[in-house]
Design brief:
By secondary structure, the protein is of the alpha+beta class. It is about 30% helix and about 25% strand. The strands form 4 sheets. Strands 3, 4, 5, 12, 17, 18, 19, 20 and 21 form a 9-stranded mixed sheet that branches. Strands 6, 7, 8, 9, 10 and 11 form a 6-stranded mixed sheet that branches.
Length: about 425
């Protein structure tokens, strides 16, 4: 391990050279920065990972069933498991997708599930990311560089090889391909995760396509190849729903493909992940996932939600107001660490203003108990220190649902912060899953 750690600076230099960065748009300005890597890995035992995998497979299976149901017969609403107005008021619900059936009825092909481990070793799910979760490329390329820098670290430890992510993803793409080439659709160089788009295209032997590279004719998607147009059978899109098709969603979108949704609705192309998934990773809908598992699978949830209170329910809102300083509040539609407020950190005036907002827009927020999740060691200025860290696990749904035996461990570089997102200045680690 010490041999690996002494190469940390060189690995970060190589990551920068290879363009392993992320970008942030703020105040209409694009700012690109490095995603700092720490070489001390997170280690998960084989038994621990097996339990995580079992729970995540169950969870994602139920979420896929929920998405099909909500865009078709809506049994879960009719049976009053989830309030009707709660679903349809979600910003992620797209009425334009009602009645659309994706190939094999799979909606979330790549699910990024964010977990934290409490100090009693219990794992809790914090968020379900089913739209366009990013992050798998970072531990992939970091592991590759670490193997080169210190091969003995991997020869001397029983670590599950994580280099199969490209193969797993390609199998998922092939499983739903309607007949044609495979494409990863990127909005372009200035997207926050452009490095990942290009890297995964290489890993899956897919075409990296810009929106202008694709067009629709007779409800079929084509790629403008050098010699002649090529039919497209599957698109792993890295563009948000609202920008995908200017003739269906936002007409001002310049990064969409006109009539793409018509081709998708006709069953002539698979889109990964399916448009409309945002309703399932709404932080308010998260509250109901254990009920979904019971409703669709007849099973108790293996994974644990963080104790959560819906401001939509009077009883939950009253509890949250009575325990305001003990809770963290989250805007259900925000991501990347934005829209998160710790009650204890607000001034008296901020608290008063926020409580007024909770009263007038209860659907917009949830409250959660603050989980004192574990700290992991990192190297900071040459010294080993402890920082909060989470784990994004990647669940791939193809002919079967599997959890990639790796993951993106993100950590806060601020000793006083629980927020680990890259957009908030966090760094990342490799995740070692032990084989035995």
């Amino acid at each position: 391990m010490q041999d690996l750690l002494k190469h940390t600076d060189n690995i970060n230099k190589l990551l920068a050279r290879f363009g392993v960065k992320f970008g942030i748009y703020k105040n209409n300005v694009f700012h690109e920065q490095l995603f700092p890597f720490d070489a001390i890995p997170r280690v998960i035992t084989a038994a621990e990972f097996a339990e995580i995998e079992k729970g995540l497979v169950q969870r994602v299976t139920a979420l896929n069933m929920f998405l099909y149901d909500i865009y078709h017969d809506q049994h879960i609403i009719k049976d009053k498991v989830i309030p009707e107005e709660f679903v349809f008021s979600s910003k992620g619900y797209l009425p334009e997708c009602y009645g659309c059936t994706p190939p094999k009825k799979i909606y979330s092909h790549i699910s990024g599930i964010d977990l934290v481990q409490a100090k009693d070793k219990t794992w809790y799910i914090l968020e379900d990311n089913l739209r366009i979760p990013s992050g798998a490329s970072y531990p992939l390329i970091a592991r590759k560089l670490c193997r080169i820098a210190s091969p003995q670290s991997y020869a001397n430890n029983n670590i599950v090889d994580n280099r199969n992510y490209g193969t797993m993803l390609r199998k998922v793409m092939d499983n739903v391909n309607t007949g044609g080439i495979s494409v990863i659709l990127t909005p372009g160089r200035y997207n926050a995760a452009f490095f990942e788009h290009a890297y995964l295209a290489e890993m899956t032997h897919s075409i990296l396509a810009m929106p202008t590279d694709l067009y629709v004719e007779n409800s079929q998607v084509y790629y403008r190849a050098m010699d002649k147009p090529q039919k497209v059978g599957v698109i792993y899109r890295r563009i948000s729903d609202e920008y995908l098709d200017p003739l269906t969603f936002l007409p001002e979108s310049l990064i969409g493909v006109p009539n793409l949704i018509n081709a998708y609705r006709a069953g002539n192309v698979a889109i990964m992940n399916a448009p409309g998934n945002g309703v399932a990773d709404d932080k308010g809908i998260y509250y109901f996932v254990p009920k979904m598992i019971k409703y669709y699978l007849g099973e108790d949830s293996i994974t644990h939600n963080a104790p959560t209170y819906l401001m939509y329910y009077n009883k939950d809102r009253d509890y949250a107001l009575a325990h305001f300083d003990e809770l963290v509040f989250k805007d259900v539609s925000e991501a990347g660490g934005y829209g998160v407020f710790f009650g204890r950190d607000l001034s008296s005036q901020q608290k008063q203003d926020f409580i007024s907002l909770l009263q007038t827009e209860p659907r917009r927020f949830i409250a959660q108990e603050i989980i004192d999740f574990i700290d992991l060691p990192i190297i900071d200025k040459g010294k080993e220190v402890l920082r909060k860290a989470d784990l994004r696990a990647f669940v791939l749904s193809g002919s079967e649902t599997k959890v990639w035996p790796s993951g993106l461990t993100r950590f806060s570089r601020n000793p006083d912060s629980f927020v680990v997102n890259s957009s908030q200045g966090g760094g990342f680690k490799d995740t070692w899953v032990l084989s035995r």
